[in-house]
Structure formats: structure tokens, C-alpha cells
Amino acid sequence: MLDLNQSIMKKRKQEMYPLVKLWFESSMTKPDFCQKHNVGYHTMNYWIKKYNRETHPAEYPVPGGFIPLTIKESLTRETGTRPEIELDLPHGIRLRIY
User: Fold this and answer.
1) To the nearest 5 percent, what fractions of the chain are helix, strand and coil?
2) What is the pTM of this model?
């Protein structure tokens, strides 16, 4: 038997997943969609993330959102260079690690 919180989350999921799918299929911006459907922007983000993790688990392997990265020492010895990592983050931020 589901406890009350699980029951509420299951009901909420049944409400929100169809909205998430509808937004994916729409050409609306997320803020416009949220306003039209009377859903909070951050609430929508939460359910989009939850939906994506459930429907595309290979793309979201770690619950914390971090993916371990290992640099092979042999590769750096062969090329004669030091490891270099470049990450493109939201809002145009680029993080370079040398």
C-alpha cells in the first residue's frame, strides 16, 4: 500500500508528465507555457528533469547530476601534453581546466 506522500506524488506525476510532453511538442517558450497552463516555472523545471531522468536514464546516470571523469595517464604521456578539459556551461560560461 502506498503511503500518503507516494500517493500524492503519483497523482502529481499523472498531472505533470502530460504537461511536460505537451511543452516538448509545443513551440512555446517555457515561461509562456507555464503562464498559459498556470504552472510555476521552477515546478515545471523539476518535472522536466524528473521526466527526462525516467525516460532517458542513460543520459542521467548519476542521481546527483555529476558524472565521474577519468583521464588516462598513458594518453597524456603518448601525446606529450597535459590534460585539458573544457566545459560549456549555461549562460555562455566556459570552464577550462589545464
Assistant:
1) 60, 10, 30
2) 0.56
36 forms beta bridges with none
Instruction: Say if CB 44 and CB 34 are below 8 A apart.
Output: yes
What confidence tier does 89 reach under pLDDT thresholds 50, 70, 90?
A: confident
Instruction: Break the chain into its structural domains and give their ranges.
Output: 4-97
Q: For residue range 60-87, list pLDDT tens digits in order.
A: 665 666 667 776 666 566 666 766 778 8
**CA-closest candidate to residue 45, choices 70, 16, 22:** 16
Hey, how many other C-beta atoms are within 10 angstroms of the C-beta on 13?
Answer: 15
Strands of 4-97, DSSP E = 85-89, 93-97
